[in-house]
TrEMBL record:
It comes from the Eukaryota. It comes from Mastacembelus armatus (zig-zag eel). The lineage of its organism: Eukaryota, Metazoa, Chordata, Craniata, Vertebrata. Its EC number is 2.7.10.1. This is receptor protein-tyrosine kinase. InterPro entries: Ig-like_dom (IPR007110), Ig-like_dom_sf (IPR036179), Ig-like_fold (IPR013783), Ig_I-set (IPR013098), Ig_sub (IPR003599), Ig_sub2 (IPR003598), Kinase-like_dom_sf (IPR011009), Prot_kinase_dom (IPR000719). PROSITE patterns: IG_LIKE, PROTEIN_KINASE_DOM, PROTEIN_KINASE_TYR, RECEPTOR_TYR_KIN_III.
């Protein structure tokens, strides 16, 4: 049967002007498939309408093209699906006349077949027998896709049954072991198919099984950021519950620790994490438990505890026995703590807060020769606390040093550096040290260690009577303190800070109790050190008991006592018949010349003896006439002794003649060559036998002889000159040492050494020639003036000479060389005020033996020699420091002879050893004289090193360069930069236990004036010099130029060595001279029995 569907247009529609057939619904749904045409059923009541298709969301208009899209009144608008698949709503639209008509709305619904994804959950399932299996299959598809699900088990199709329910979810009731296997879900849309699988494991019963082997010890290092994971491998059904224990207790929650059943994760392991850990797994069904334990060892790098709690600088009193302690903690516990040390000289800037890592040269603690001796090292180990304690016991604290303790284990190492500072604490002293006299220049000196104390200040204690006794150290709060009116001077030497209260021309008003206030840096406590100042009144010299006339038998012994009194202590001079009495054979002056003893009295000893006592206030005399009795009868003993002496002398003279004839007599040059012996190459021969073994490179040092201008030479000094040539080669080049230029040593001509030319000659002569041209400060010169005409000597020049000599001696000491004859006569001055050390005639290389002891007799410069050299014949660098102090005295006295007015005899040596020192030279400042006293300390080890002298003099030279002097007519205003807390300061001469000058009836006193509007006078300190042949002759002699070698002729050496004769001449009136009179005298020295 054939059915025909005929579309008949309704005229009533057209009349009503409804071109589209209306729909019974507000909207219709149009289903479209991908790749197919879609018909939108917007049928029309009229044919041949111009219909367009409009879409919404987004808005778009489609026109029929007659090929892919068209409109038919019977069916509607045909269009490809891809043109409207994106649209949400479509409608047809036409225009009749001026009116537009729209069809009903049609919702576009896309019908697809694509399956995008298929998932089966859970993927892995574990069950025990009797439990229920549920698998869910979920497909992700296009819209309106019909899906069919199929299930398979291990490749076999599953069908619905009583225990199996199929759909997109598979349910199996009461699983058995046979249900173990792979389950697959297949989803099909007709045109597309996808599959997903899951695995089921069915166990007969619940269980827990931890894998073996189990690691019982875990060892980790302390880490800051890294995480440490300790795994736990097990098999179990069902998944067990768990808990972690530490040392038997539940492990506390911590943000660093993550607890899981399969691992323990610790982020940033710390020492506290060490311990015994236990994992407990619990079956949720059967409540069965399985445990495993392990020990966690945390390796901790060693750390020295004292670095956190102690200061880096340990301050200890001099002579104490401190204990240095280092406590190291770590795991494993360090086996030992190793100690090392370093002297301050190896790292001189260590105490100035430089990075200590720059200090090198550490030595084992057992190698501590020359510094603080070590008593013992005690080590104690506490494994329970994981620490080791090491104590280093110092036997005696004597010198500053650095100590380092080091601890190490398998992880790392740690060290601590201790700055071992030795201090003498607080000290208050007074200069002069004995009870001062009125009009003395007195200084109260307060010295403190700046590492312990600060804020030093002087005060005068009020409301304290002379009879009231107070302890020398008092809390400042218990005292009434008043600021003093006098000036103060602050200086610093190393770590010691000194504050001096200056009392120039002290008077009775200055007497009283003074307090030096210091503040402890750590505790801030203020402490006062008290010192009472008492002055002795001035009293003219007087003879207490007058001498009486005496008679004495010839050959007897008589003593005359001159008991004197006065303030200051008078000096005593004896005269006989107006001629000064000089010690000699049988004539002894003792007890500071108070006692005159004459042994073996002779007839010519009779006469008028006068004792004269003088001080600054006046003189007094006492006289006695000595009469001799009897005759000079020569006894048998008196005849036997000279006869026997003559016989013995002749015997020895003959013996010497035979010995000399048997071998060649060494000349003066040979003797001196012995002093010049040095060694460098041989270790089997003693030092005194190796002068000839020093090498001389002729190719390097030889100079053509014909190019030299000769002024004379002596052949007897050949060996000495050759030895000194080798010394110069060995020492090397330095600015402040006379440097070698060449030599002529080849046979056929005289031996000649060529050294630098120094135009001004030796320093001693140069200073004497400049005495009339000395001015403390440099003058300003205008641009129009010629500064070259100003050739006067200044304080800056004197300090510069001292500084340069110290630099040169520092170099010689670094070359292990001892000069042994350091004096101004052996210092040459070249152009631009450059000084050079010369005359190595007594120089000695101590490369192998720094404590070299010279033996044998020779003429030696006693005035420049240290006590240990005079008495023990010990020559060291410290004895050169003593000589340097004497050299400073020469420089700042402008070339004067040391120890003026003092006879160089046995009494001189004894008093030198007892601590008596020279008075300050005329032009020395306080700092310079203090430097001299430091160089003259009794113990050689207490004297400063040349390196310290270089630093100190360099500071003084810099301070001197800052002084400004302005010439204002006849006055001079000095602006001086001083280290003081006050704006105006005075300097004054220091006083110590000193050699007395030859007494004078009147002497002047140094005048110290502060900067003021009044005219400033040049300080003047009148010295009565006791001139030897050297000082008398050198002032009128011509200056020498060039290099002065160590092999002078005897006449030039005579005045400076101890075997020169001493003759004193003095004219004295019988009556006491008036105070204005002065003594004119000439003194020579006798040989002391050293």
């Amino acid at each position: 049967m054939i059915l025909c569907r005929v579309f008949v247009p309704t005229s009533s529609y057209a009349q009503e002007k409804v071109p589209f057939v209306p729909s019974e619904k507000d909207y219709e749904v149009v289903f479209i498939r991908e790749g197919q045409r879609v018909v939108i059923p917007c049928r029309g009541s009229l044919e041949n309408l111009n219909v367009t298709l409009h879409t919404k969301y987004p808005n778009k208009e489609l026109h029929p093209d007659g090929k892919d899209s068209w409109w038919d009144a019977r069916t509607g608008f045909t269009v490809p699906s891809h043109l409207i698949s994106y649209a949400g709503v479509v409608s047809c639209q036409t225009r009749i006349g001026n009116e537009t008509f729209k069809s009903p709305l049609y919702i576009v619904a896309v019908v697809g077949y694509k399956i995008y994804n298929l998932s089966l959950t859970p993927v892995e399932v574990r069950l025990s027998v009797g439990e229920r299996l549920v698998l869910s299959c979920l497909a992700h598809t296009e819209l309106n896709v019909g899906i069919e699900f199929n299930w398979t088990h291990s490749g076999q199709a599953l069908v619905s049954a009583q225990t199996i329910s199929l759909s997109n979810t598979l349910i199996v009731e009461n699983v058995t072991v046979d249900h173990t296997g792979e389950y697959t879900c297949t989803a099909s849309s007709g045109q597309m198919e996808k599959s997903a699988s899951a695995f089921l494991k069915v166990y007969e019963k619940p269980f827990i099984d931890i894998e073996e082997p189990w690691l019982k010890v875990w060892e980790v290092n302390v880490e800051d950021q890294k995480s440490t994971q300790i795994p736990v491998k097990y098999l179990a059904y069902p998944d067990p519950s768990f808990k972690w224990l530490k040392n038997g207790l539940p492990l506390k929650e911590d943000y660093r620790i993550k607890q899981r059943s399969d691992a323990l994760i610790i982020r940033g392991v710390k020492e506290i994490d060490a311990g015994n850990y236990t994992i407990v797994l619990i079956n949720k069904i059967t409540k069965e438990e399985q445990r495993r334990s392990f020990q966690l060892l945390v390796n901790v790098p060693p750390k020295i505890i004292e670095k956190e709690v102690a200061v880096d600088t340990d301050v200890h009193p001099y002579g104490s026995s401190p204990t240095l302690r280092c406590t190291a903690r770590g795991f494993p516990t360090p086996a030992l703590i190793h100690w090392q040390w370093m002297s301050k000289e190896d790292c001189p800037e260590a105490f100035s807060e430089i990075p200590l890592k720059k200090c090198t040269g550490w030595r084992d603690i057992t190698n501590s020769s020359g510094h603080n001796p070590v008593d013992r090292i005690v080590t104690d180990t506490d494994h329970a606390q994981k620490k080791i304690v090491s104590s280093l016991k110092i036997k005696k604290a004597e010198a500053r040093a650095l100590y380092r303790c080091m601890a190490a284990n398998k992880v790392a190492e740690d060290s601590r550096i201790i700055l071992f500072h030795v201090t003498r604490g607080l000290e208050v002293s007074m200069l002069p040290s004995n009870e001062p006299v009125e009009e003395d220049h007195v200084a109260l000196r307060c010295r403190a260690d700046k590492l312990i104390y600060g804020n030093l200040a002087w005060f005068r204690v009020a409301n304290i009577s002379k009879s009231e006794q107070l302890a020398s150290v008092q809390p400042c709060r218990s005292l009434t303190l008043q600021p003093p009116s006098q000036s103060v001077l602050a200086t610093q030497h190393g770590t010691n800070v000194t504050l001096e209260l200056l009392l120039p021309n002290a008077s009775r008003q200055d007497e009283g109790l003074y307090a030096c206030q210091v503040q402890n840096i750590k505790t801030k406590e203020r402490t006062c050190l008290l010192r009472r100042l008492s002055l002795r009144g001035l009293e003219a010299a007087r003879v207490v008991n007058n001498l009486t006339d005496q008679k004495v038998n010839i050959s007897a012994t008589i003593s005359l006592l001159c008991d004197v009194a006065g303030t200051p202590t008078p000096t005593v001079v004896w005269t006989k018949n107006n001629h000064t009495v000089v010690e000699g054979s049988g004539v002894i002056l003792s007890q500071q010349n108070h006692v005159l003893t004459i042994q073996r009295v002779k007839k010519e000893d009779s006469g008028l003896y006068t004792c004269t006592a003088c001080n600054s206030r006046g003189c007094d005399t006492s006289q006695a006439f000595l009469t001799t009795e009897g005759t000079e009868e020569k006894t048998n003993v008196e005849l036997i002794v000279p006869i026997g002496s003559v016989v013995i002398a002749m015997f020895f003279w003959l013996l010497i003649v035979f010995v000399i004839r048997g071998r060649k007599r060494p000349n003066g040059g040979d003797l001196k060559a012995g002093y010049l012996s040095m060694i460098l190459d041989s270790e089997d021969m003693p030092m005194d036998e190796q002068c000839e073994r020093l090498t001389y490179d002729a190719n390097k040092w030889e100079f053509p002889r014909e190019r030299l201008k000769l002024e004379g030479a002596t052949s007897s000094e050949y060996r000495a000159l050759m030895s000194e040539l080798k010394i110069l080669i060995h020492i090397g080049h330095h600015l402040n040492v006379v440097n070698l230029l060449g030599a002529c040593t080849r046979p056929g001509g005289p031996l000649m050494v060529i050294v630098e030319y120094c135009k001004h000659g030796n320093l001693s002569s140069y200073l004497k020639s400049k005495r009339g041209e000395y001015s403390p400060y440099k003058k300003w010169v205008s641009a129009e003036e010629d500064s070259t005409d100003d050739d006067h000597l200044t304080m800056e020049d004197l300090i510069s000479y001292s500084f340069q000599v110290a630099k040169g001696m520092e170099f010689l000491s670094s070359r292990k060389c001892i000069h042994r004859d350091l004096a101004a006569r052996n210092i040459l001055l070249s152009e631009n005020n450059v000084v050079k050390i010369c005359d190595f005639g007594l120089a000695r290389d101590v490369y192998k033996d720094p404590d070299y002891v010279r033996k044998g007799d020779a003429r030696l410069p006693l005035k420049w020699m240290a006590p240990e050299t005079i008495f023990d014949r010990v020559y060291t660098t410290q004895s050169d420091v003593w000589s340097f102090g004497v050299l400073l005295w020469e420089i700042f006295s402008l070339g004067a002879s040391p120890y003026p007015g003092v006879c160089i005899d046995e009494s001189f040596c004894r008093r030198l050893k007892e601590g008596t020192r020279m008075r300050p030279p005329e032009y020395a400042t306080t700092e310079i004289y203090q430097t001299m006293l430091d160089c003259w300390l009794d113990r050689p080890t207490d004297r400063p090193t040349f390196a310290e002298l270089v630093e100190h003099l360099g500071n003084l030279l810099q301070a001197s360069a800052q002084q400004v002097c302005v010439d204002l007519g006849n006055s001079m205003i000095a602006v001086v930069t001083l280290l003081s807390e006050q704006s105006e300061k005075c300097s004054r001469p220091l006083s110590v236990k000193m050699f007395e000058d030859i007494p004078v009836a009147h002497s002047s006193v140094m005048v110290s004036v502060c900067d003021s509007t009044n005219e400033i006078h040049k300080p003047h300190f009148q010295l009565l010099r006791c001139k030897s042949k050297e000082s008398l002759a050198s002032e009128s002699s011509n200056q020498t130029s060039g290099y002065q070698s160590g092999y002078h002729s005897d006449d030039t050496d005579t005045p400076i060595y101890a075997n020169e004769e001493v003759i004193m001449k003095h004219n004295m009136l019988k009556k006491p001279p008036p105070p204005s009179d002065k003594f004119n005298m000439e003194i020579r020295y006798s040989t002391p029995p050293v």
